[in-house]
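ENTRY TYPE: protein
CONTENTS: sequence, structure tokens:
***
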Amino acid sequence: MKSVAVLGGLLLYFCSASAQDAVRPTYLDSSKPTEQRVADLIGRMTLEEKAQQLNHLNVGIPRLKVAAWGGWNQTLHGVWSKQPTTLFPAAIAMGATWDPSLVHTITGAMSDEARALYNIGADGPRSKHGLVFRSPVINISRDPRWGRIQEVFSEDPFLTGRMGVAYVQGLQGDDPHYLKVAATVKHFAVNNVETNRQRLSAEVDERNLMEYWLPHWKAAIMEGHAQSVMSSYNAINGAPDAINKHLLTDILRGQWKFDGFVTDDLGAVNLLVTAHHITEDPVVATAEAIKAGCDSDDVQYETNIPLAVQRGLLQTSDVDRALARVLRVGFRLGAFDPPSMNPYSKISADVIRSPEHLKLSLQTALESMTLLSNKNNFLPLKKENLKSVAVIGPAGDAAFETGNYYGTPARKVSPLQGLKEALGSDVKVEYEQGAGFVEAADASMISRAADLARRSDVAIVFLGTNLKVEAEGRDRRDLNLPGAQEQLLEAVYAANPKTVLVLMNAGPLAVTWANDHLPAILDAWYPGEAGGTAIAQVLLGDYNPGGHLPYTVYASLDGVPPQNEYDVSKGFTYLYFKGVPLYPFGHGLSYTQFKYSNLKLSQTKASATGEVQVAFDLQNSGSRAGSEVAQLYVHQAKSNVVQPIKSLRGFQRIVLEAGETKHVTITLPVSQLSYYDIATHRFIVAPGTFKVMIGSSSDDIRLRADLEIN
């Protein structure tokens, strides 16, 4: 009888388990295909719940056990949070490293911290941390006056593309089943002016759009597999990007097979009414955006989607299509599965500001340091010859800029602090501000700074910009040092010609006087929380700088077209600028020297398909270890259409010991020799001779070879 009872109990157990399995919703069954789970969940939601889920600050659906997984946050150069996270150098500094593998490591660290904050239910800047992050910014710095250059990687589509792919892949992780977080690439597209940005229309011809404004987006989507795209406020040729069907559907989904979701920049659908004046009815604006391919918005969607359906402006199928795109990303993030199934759910708060991440922030700052000039090898400074050092300038102390889209840093190692720590108590290191970033000259402040320089062995002047000069919503009018900084610099140099300028800026600065007079200039960008330590190590020779400029530094605005000219061939960037720059794209000096030799192509004649291996030797011919960024450029010798002066098509950052030689190979797909043909609306490779160039910058070409395309 006992055995019968046991058997009966087992049968009852298995029957009840089977019954539970039978009633378990498909969307909560991780064994089912994602598309089936998405469809099942959508089928259980009311129209109002669907609309709420398309609000980027959705609150979840408790009755369906749907958590508030989405939300949104920023991790441009560190996770924006109410608690301190690791602060890295600004994106433009990452661009100056020319090191995609480093960027991949950085974003892997940032997404670890982002996941940890989500796992512990920490507070973000607006709500609990979600898993969708509105980074990276992959717009390009076509115009040197643009206020958001700090947020981007380069003026060049190819360099931006390589950095963007590395950033996205590092952020989203490499698990075959789950995303660590979802990356949002922004702002799509042709977003490059802050003045009147919420209503302007960028007039762009088809060839410029496809050749300059979109290639890096294609790379981030098709190679990086970014899960989200943010449309920009501006219009293109009269069509606002939030309802630009050609951009959001035809190109993004049709040509590039994007399978994530599109969100608009904050409030952009409302701006269709208030700024672009497409309609006076916000319900119509919502319907047009959904149908064009914009899947997520703010409270406008939550409020207006049900009204649009009721009025027949939208079909339920339109709403379901947008919702499926959003939810699909949620399932990839594991938001509907038990945490035990997701390896990223195990990331603990111990990773936040871990020693490894702090070390990585310092490494990034070091790799980004770009030596612009160094007459007679003035740098590095010799510690043994220093008894007194003057630190001067508004960026020399804790007021130096760290960049936007980040919370409050736990620490900021200023240049003054970094130099004091590096030089020790035997060297007197004193500070005078001398001037503010933007304020008018104060004669007494400048006088005190000059006096300090006069009685010091060397003066190090820290000048540049902050968010009062260049930022979201704020373009610059010129390329000069702002405020009284130029006056301060000249006074300090007059007092002590042994003056080094350290620039701490985002966009290019036309420091022509400094270049003509000062013995050395170092660009330190917005260097993150360990900036002062990195600067000291470079100035004192403990680290050999290897950063290279990710944009052109113009001597002035002469020859630079106006901001509202979106045809790059009119003279923007190294691709088409015909003047003499102050510092060319790709420029960066070292404390050692590099010799290029033995250029060989795997084939000198090729068809329009396939690839060519470009090989050469790179030698560190100096007396100390260093890193060089070898750059590959191409140019078609004769063409029936306007072609760039030269175009970047490959690069490698290479570390070499003193005297060491490395054999370097860069792969050049022949498809990268193409141009966009407006007659056939596609990229073509025209037969002819192509110049293949290897150099240390766009103007410093060391090796050349011809490649014939049949």
